[in-house]
Write a structure and sequence with these properties.
binds NADP nicotinamide-adenine-dinucleotide phosphate; Dehydrogenase; mainly alpha; globular; single chain; two-stranded parallel ribbon; about 45% helix; SDR_fam; oxidoreductase activity; oxidoreductase; Rossmann fold
């Protein structure tokens, strides 16, 4: 869904009225924002830290995420099980990302090549290039900065956390 998303950094929650909010716009934009945030996180974490940042697509999975879909789409989910994974099948690419030794190697290669976006695995566990818009690094940096600000973390949060400092998000605290 991130392929059809668009993030307006000054209006990340689609509340300004410039774009009409729909759940589809919110969903697709949040998926793209997640890829963009991950790209900057991938850049900020030094190779020596031994931490890999990977975005993973699980495929189309029949979970509660589908509960608010229009009824005809819900019916389609149920009658085309060949294309729709159950939750167990849908966990495959996430488990692969978390356990296969090739994944950290792949992440290290992208980091060494200064590849602009984060590692991304498709539902069939293959390295994949995120959308063209995900390569918009200027927007990705703004998404990073705005997100840290929204959750009350300082701009050097990654560096401070890696040094062992304890930092707490302030989301929801007025
Ligand atoms: N299913 C798909 O086809 C699919 C495809 C691609 C990507 N994804 C992504 O995979 C992720 C997991 O989705 P899923 O399919 O497993 O959906 P899900 O069954 O609806 O699970 C979503 C989980 O997020 C929790 N959650 C929702 N809103 C929350 C909030 N405001 N604060 C804290 N927790 C919250 C839910 O908690 P409760 O159960 O307590 O509500 C639930 O455990 C999502 O990011 C989704 O976009 C899903």
């Amino acid at each position: 869904m991130h392929n059809v998303g668009f993030v307006e950094p000054e209006d990340m929650n689609v509340t300004s009225g410039k774009r009409r909010y729909t759940s589809l716009i919110g969903y697709c934009s949040s998926k793209l924002a997640q890829v963009m945030f991950s790209s900057i996180l991938h850049k900020r974490i030094p190779a020596e830290a031994g931490i890999s940042v990977v975005c993973v697509s699980p495929g189309i999975v029949y979970t509660n995420v589908a509960r608010d879909l229009p009824k005809f789409l819900l019916a389609a989910y149920k009658i085309i099980p060949y294309f729709v994974f159950n939750a167990e099948e849908g966990s495959r690419s996430t488990l692969f990302a978390a356990t296969d030794p090739q994944v950290p190697e792949y992440c290290d290669t992208l980091k060494a090549d200064d590849w602009p976006v984060c590692p991304f695995l498709s539902q069939d566990c293959h390295p994949t290039n995120p959308s063209e818009e995900a390569h918009n690094i200027e927007t990705a940096y703004k998404v990073w900065e705005n997100t840290l600000e929204m959750i009350g973390l300082p701009s050097d949060a990654v560096e401070r956390l890696l040094e062992g400092e304890e930092l707490k998000c302030q989301y929801g605290i007025s």
